[in-house]
Records
---
Amino acid sequence: MTKHEFRIVGKSVKRQDVIEKITGEGRYTGDYHLPGLLSGKIKRAEIAHARIRRIDVSRALAYPGVKAVLTHHDVPRVLHYGSPHPRSASCTMDQYILDDRVRFWGEGIAAVAAVSEEIADEALDLIEVEYEPLPAILDIDAAQAPDAPLIHDVGPGGNLVIPPVHIERGDVEKGFAEADLILEGEFSGGRPVPTYMEPNVCIADWDGSNKLTFWTSTQTSFMVRGALAEVLGLPLNKVRVLVDHMGGGFGAKQDLFQHEFLCALLAKKCRRPVKMEFTRRETFLAGRSRHPFRLWLRQGFRKDGTLTAREMKIVYESGAYGSHSPGVTNVGTASATSLYRCENVRLDGRAVYTNTPIAGAYRGYGVVQTYFAIDIQMDEAAEKLGIDPAGIRLRNAVREGDIAPSGHPVVGYGLEACIRHGIRAFDWAGKRAADRHDPANPAIRKGWGIGCEMHGSSAYPGIKEQGNAIVRMNEDGSVTLLTGAAGLGTGAHTALAQIVAEELGVPFETVSVVHGDTDVVPWDIGAFASHTTYLVGSAAKMAAAELRQRVLARAAEKLQEKPGHLEMVEGVILVQGQPDRSITVAEAMGPSRGIPAEHLVASGSYMPTKSYSFAAHFVEVAVDTETGIIECRKVMPVHDVGRVIHPVAAQGQIEGGIQQGIGHTLTEDYVIDRTTGRSLNAGLVDYKMPLSMDMPDIETVILEAAPDPGGPWGAKGVGEDPIIAIGPAIANAVYDAIGVRFHHYPITPEDVLNGLRRKAAESSARD
Amino acid sequence: MNKIHLEITVNGEARSMMVEGHRSLLDALREEAGLTGTKKGCDVGDCGACTVIVDGRPVNACLMLAVEAQGAEILTIEGLQPDPDTLHPLQEAFMEHGASQCGFCSPGILIMAKCLLDRNPLPSDEEIRFGLSGNICRCTGYTKIFDAIRTAGRRMAAARAQSVEA
């Protein structure tokens, strides 16, 4: 890569979308109001598995203020995809808008539109439902039992969502035969939920031409458009999806959640706009979680720590519908081919249906689970072999040219750089040699741990993706970028504007971003898979480069100079080597020989393969041996992102991911009653996230160790990475502190106390 | 349904509206007064996204009935700017430090931070953490929010010191 002096890229410019967020002027979907707006509400099943024998809405319909009620008798019976991605390996077609069968507690079974939210709510209670209960399958074992009843008629059978994913490379038997140490273990994890702050919300409005305008909080507006059009039987140009500001998504807001279809159908029936807004409780009941899992892992190591073989079986719990399970299972299973290089691997990944809430896409997408297990077993191997935990990781870290999980060679590997940097900056050796006791509190034991990760930017090869951008220079020299990428809060639009300004040679402030209107902006696959900056950023750079040529050609005419002799810097077009000959971009765009000014437009389309970002997380924990509470005291995340476009936004992604990762590892678990399937903690108090009092000091380090030629100036993704490495880093630090190994998350105080008791009993039995 | 005549002052402006007795202050602000900057994240007092200042005290607007605010002076996020062309130092600092990502919690956190700094111009790290303990942010890990509040507090204190000297 040639040496490039950046003017805008790499600087933490003011995020364009933030001014609206901090003044309260930014509009989120729930802030919109339309004349005649009705309120829609969903009646949710209070049973985990049943057939609906009878559903009587007559009392609800007669209730004053109620305008319409829908049940499975009233809506089109179209089998549709749970996750509306373009047809690919990540989709399963297993959902109806409303069905005569209930597959999880909280599933929508009817919908009401009324003149107020209160009336709609009251009407829900007037709907009478008679169920024929069916045996409920509430965990992975029950789903896999030979005589287990089937939750779906579709799929490969045995409650599998998709046929098992099987990956085999090298010769696993030979690998184990060469091993000096073989470790085997079982791992599992709970059900963390993304808990975005903005509850799901949408507004549907039909016009006289049978066109649907649809405001919604989604990461994938074009996928929502596609699913609505397909299920409602409309051409794409009759569905306009609008997304303004979004209050987070973290992957989950790629799905449709039943209410989109119901809202559109209610609005159609009532001939009035309808708004449907989830309560916080509904975001739990009907939202998406990370997949709970069971994992078995066996690895062989030489005396020097080198991996010789890896065998893994993982079962992901999909819940009642497939949603992203195919994608999660494929990505998660494939992830275990790498991170720590191993020529001989045999992997088996499955996803099973259960009668529990739906697991979907969530930051870390199947990889959180596998790397949690692998990175803990790595620590166990280090201890058994008498090698430093960081050292065994350096020995095995994935390298340039290794086959990546996606199946093609790793280009630019940053993992070693991340580990080496962290060893120094965290003072790894010094800390690990330090006293575990805390002089301030005799019950405390301190410990230090490390965890690593790699994660792809873009969903390739599961989805062949495409990023698009249109860049327009207006007559006055101002620039408009049109992008379909959603702004779910990451600062992606600002990064895209930076890329355009840099490539064009105009001031950052002159670029504005238009997004969130499927009638206007270029098609976009959605904001997920850590790919917006990588994929759409590259498309925006291509479009800006082309536009630059057009602007220079126009300027060349005015300056009577060859375009190749011109350069554009900060909105001024200069003749190279002749600083006195220049015009502004506005002058170049102005009227020419009596012909009125015009705007110039260029577009870019980019189809990437894959790049990988890397990270090593170093953590310090303090375990209270009396209360069992684990406090995460310090985290140093070291990330390689290739090229950082906006440092503060990138840091923000990392620190927020760590917050969620700490939660998953220590406190967060959406609990489903194992006998009824009912959720036990569908609220922000009972579902315990790390908040201001709980967060540790985070000292974020961003490296540009391994730029990827596929991203703009080498940039790679950063969104998903931070949530992956923190979990095993904490579990390993807990072991370092108290000598008790945990193979599951969340690790609760009760687990710690039980573990300490077990350890004490074992050591007294030995004595 | 019977409506009650409510008179409140919001962001310095006298407002008069008819609200149902069961209406929360949050719904009245968002729907009757058209001030949608204050967000509804849970509607049960768990998340702090709806924090507003009522007669000088921070309140979860979802937990207060609108009629309880009869005659009160209320400050919402829309009233935080001293004038339309100037940002409050907290808003400036939030921009600079990247303390707002998705932004849904930001209005509540900014209002809570204003309460904190009004009472305690130079809070310690522990005081900032405690001050925000009722406000959930799921995007930032809080680090940037703490940085922004510290920065704003320092600048506000310096500005006050300067105006005293002048």
Note: The longest strand of chain B covers residues 3-10.
---
Amino acid sequence: MSNDTVLVLVVITALAFDFTNGFHDTGNAMATSIATGALGPRTAVALSGVLNFVGAFLSLAVAATIASGLVATGKVTLTVVAAGLAGGIIWNLLTWLLGIPSSSSHALIGGVIGSTLAAAGGSAIQWHNLVSKVVLPAVLSPVIAALVAACGTWLLYRITRSLTDGARKHGFRIGQIGSACVVSLAHGTNDAQKTMGVITLALIVNGSRPTGSNAPVWVIVCCALAIALGTYIGGWRVIRTLGKGLVEIESPQGMAAESASAAVILLSSTFGYSLSTTHVATGSIIGTGLGKKGAEVRWNVAGRMATAWVFTLPSAAIVGAAAYGIAYGVGGTFGVVLDLIILAGLSGFIYWRSRATKVDHNNVNAEWTGGVAPEKVPAATAAA
Amino acid sequence: MWINLGALWKIVVYGLIAGAGLPALFAGGLYALSLGPNRARAATAGAEGGDSDVLVGGSVTGMVLAAIAFLIILAAIGWSVYEIYYLGHPHTTAKK
């Protein structure tokens, strides 16, 4: 059962997903550095892009989990994979439009599970693995990250309490560059692998690769490039929510948050948990708000995010299932093509909507006034 | 098993060591770096309303200690990246 046209379409869609994964998640690594001024916005995204690229080559442990641990590969077809990816992309774009740092991994996993459910029913899902490898880590990881970041923040302020404010700010800004780099590397390692896993799954399903094989080199290179490019484009809306919306961050908090994220992400991927870098980064940032006396966490923003997290898996699953329904209803290669045309149309629409309230490197750090897009400042005041 | 408790406590403990310990070591380095004659001056400037962002206090011992702290951090990062690379490519190690 080999269909190379569909396979090519699936690979392109997967790389498109990887691209949205990159720009949706730039904020996980760079939001706090941009917010504290440790790095200029454009330098930050460029640096993060390069490190994501390098990180993608570091490990293949998580890719294996995605390719074989969650759905019964025997029941998956290329159409299922394409529909699942469509679900993931749509959810990523919608949450980006709203500036909500939701999990790209959950969007992808949700999409694939939804389309598999629609195609083959509940028995094709490895529910136990889904709960133990995806849902539970999603609940625990932000808590652990927050704990680590809170301890880190407390220690940093305690140890440097005799330094002048200026010296402390200066010193930790330098440190933040290092910690932000490690998070970017961790993100590349962790997230690029998820797309590698999906493409490998498609190759296995198509019979192009034997079951249980690792991602081929061209897949690794393409995924690394796609996530790096996406990161470089920069998801300014999400960066803004993470850097300015949750907690007003100072440089010691930024470094504490980034170090906590890097440690938790890298440790968990070593154990093969495909946890969400977004959940970890958000947990860390909340943690730094808890670890510093007098810092304020905007719980309403955090609450909005947590709500989005709960809905990510099921929502992406519904879109994935619907996409499968359309492709199946139309049938054949054209069904998949139609899915992708609809996907491209919706993506274009969401992009068009985002232009109305543009967030970019110029206004990403503007005062938080409750919404994603900063209120328009009259030109005269902005210049002053 | 729904939760792998063995992995969980390791993530928490190692996470605290690496994620909070290493930045704390960095903070210790900054503190050591700030020791010395310049620091008193910076403090006076601070008391007078100025805000000095000078990091180097001028004490040689302080600078050496800071350098050691920063090197340990760099070594730890380098080692973990190597470790991840090594663990993440099982096929290169499994083959004879």
Note: The radius of gyration of chain A is 20 Å.
